[in-house]
């Protein structure tokens, strides 16, 4: 019985750690994967580097975006962080 009481704080700490850190991170990761899978031509997007543009072409792992100045950039899908 005494050993159970000594491990209770450790178990409680692991449960709190899971709900405060691991679970929210998995949720954010899943949301990002859903965003990347749903990218299509014509979407306005923002990259991790802060580059804004419109998707002109979507390939398996890359996208081609056109910025406001008319410049086209080819980048990894994973670098897209937001659809505006």
What does this structure look like?
With 84 residues, this protein is an alpha+beta fold. It contains 1 helix and 5 strands, in the order H-E-E-E-E-E. Strands 4-3-2-1-5 form a 5-stranded antiparallel beta sheet, with helices on one face. The mean pLDDT is 94.
Q: Main attributes?
A:
alpha+beta, 5 strands, single chain
Strand order of the largest sheet: 4-3-2-1-5
The coarse overall form would be: rod-shaped
Helical content stands at 40-55%
Average of per-residue pLDDT values: 94
Give the topology string: H per helix, E per strand.
HEEEEE
> Major beta sheet, specifics?
5 strands, antiparallel
Structural class: alpha+beta
Poorly predicted ranges (pLDDT <50, ≥5 residues)? none
Termini separation (Å)? 57 Å
Q: How many DSSP H or I helices?
A: 1
Radius of gyration equals: 21 Å
Total DSSP E strands = 5
How much β-strand is present in the residues? 25-35%
Short overview:
The protein is α+β, with helices and mostly antiparallel strands and about 80 residues long. It is built from one helix and five strands, in the order H-E-E-E-E-E.
Q: What is the secondary structure topology, with strand pairs?
A:
Layout: H1 2-37, E1 44-47, E2 52-58, E3 62-66, E4 72-76, E5 80-83
Antiparallel strand pairs: 1-2, 1-5, 2-3, 3-4
